[in-house]
Amino acid sequence: MENELPISRRFFKVMVPGFHAKLTIPPAFCLKLKGEKSEKGTLKHGKGTWNVGIGRSKNGVMWFDKGWEQFVQNYNLKIGDFAVFEHLGNMNFSVSLLDSTGCDKKFLMLEDGKQQVPSQVKSPECRIEKRKPEGDVLIHQYVKGSSEFTARIKEYNVRKRSPYLHIPTEFCHSNALLQNTTITLTGPSGISCPVSLRICPGGKTLYVIMTTGWRDFFSSNKLKVGDVCIFQIDRTNSDSKSITMNVRVM
């Protein structure tokens, strides 16, 4: 008598319209998870681990919900991409990601192990971010080839939850910031603050923002909405691996 094949622990999903909010686990695979009662699970990709909620219907269908949207945004999943899930037990999954060609999606690992962006960071197709002014109020100003840029502080830059600051993309290209995951900011307080950079893809546009550490900087320098800051690279204390910027507040 032939031995039975082992029960598969893997399934794959193609990203179709509506996948951003939640992702349904195939019903046939849900039958194999009958004994799993946990309402929470994890998705592991590379060095990143993401917590997700497990939704359930009365007829036994399951799906990833709370936390899934953040996973999608972080890995820039798009319609046509593939995801292969391997169940590791207790609703924990290892995830392999492929693009619409069926090849592995390529990523650039950032400092925290979770934030990853597609490798087309250096692609010549990427166009420059254009920030529109609100009325006659300056948001960002950058002169091509310059080692400094000016930014007017907005409410989202200094809010309590997830504050961040945009950096002009052309400034990043011209000054090799895309090869760095952190920079050091020194403001009027004299305190040096390491700040993480995150590169956010959006179609053919790249958005570069300061994230972790930015709160420490604006708090120590008491920045407020309406302040105009001039960020200038300190060439004497910077090299290809470490960028230091001095910040003046007008």
UniProtKB/TrEMBL annotation:
Its main location: nucleus. SMART domains: B3 (SM01019). Keywords: DNA-binding, Nucleus, Transcription, Transcription regulation. One of its GO terms (cellular component) is nucleus. Gene3D superfamilies: DNA-binding pseudobarrel domain. CDD domains: B3_DNA. Residues 8-101, 150-250 form the TF-B3 domain. SUPFAM superfamilies: DNA-binding pseudobarrel domain. This is B3 domain-containing protein REM15 isoform X1. The gene is LOC107761464.
